[in-house]
Design brief:
Blueprint (H helix, E strand, L loop, with lengths): L4 H19 L17 E7 L4 H17 L7 E7 L23 H11 L4 E8 L18 E4 L4 H12 L8 H9 L1
Length: 184
């Protein structure tokens, strides 16, 4: 049996979705000044829903968006932020997930893959919470998470994030400081 990157992300996302739903986390505010884009025009599409018709419509909107820029990825950058029920559209297997009794049309994912030829990126958000949910409800939303990966991380950094959480590095430093120390 082989494990694909997509399968691994799916398993992590499914377990993270379960934790996230029990912890009642509220996402942090995104500082738009820190978002780097490589084109003059960029657009962020947000997918936190599980309705296949809505997802299909969003893919059509993205295709139309590219069409308006002559499918030129040097003129337009599209990013899809995916979390919650939206993750299911990127899983190879829904077994063991809240959506295991659903069937997703494989053509939906093929349409997304077709858009990636033009540079569409998707960024799942991974949230990490304390081992015990006790007391989380009393905390301010921004204090409930112990760590967060708000999109793509290089493979070494992605693995380091899991080490950071396992070692409870968040109790003494930020993930950025943890990475700096690990690289030096």
């Amino acid at each position: 049996m082989s494990t694909t990157r997509r399968g691994m992300i799916g398993a992590l996302a499914a377990s993270g979705a379960t934790l996230a739903s029990t912890a009642l986390a509220v996402p942090d505010t995104l500082d738009l000044a820190t978002v780097k884009k490589d084109t003059d025009v960029a657009c962020l599409y947000h997918c936190d829903f599980g309705d296949p018709q809505r997802f299909s419509a969003m893919l059509q909107n993205m295709n139309n968006h590219y069409s308006a820029y002559a499918f030129d990825s040097f003129k337009l950058e599209l990013v899809m932020v995916v979390h919650s029920a939206g993750i299911k559209f990127f899983l190879d297997d829904l077994s063991g997930t809240p959506w295991e009794k659903e069937t997703i049309d494989p053509d939906i994912y093929k349409r997304f893959v077709g858009l990636t030829k033009y540079g569409v990126r998707f960024t799942p958000t991974f949230q990490f919470f304390p081992e015990s949910p006790e007391g989380l409800a009393q905390l301010a939303p921004e204090k409930r998470e112990v760590a967060r990966a708000p999109g793509y991380l290089r493979p070494d950094d992605f693995l380091a994030l899991f080490r950071f959480v396992r070692e409870k590095g968040y109790e003494t430093k930020s993930f950025r400081d943890y990475l700096r120390a690990a690289r030096s």
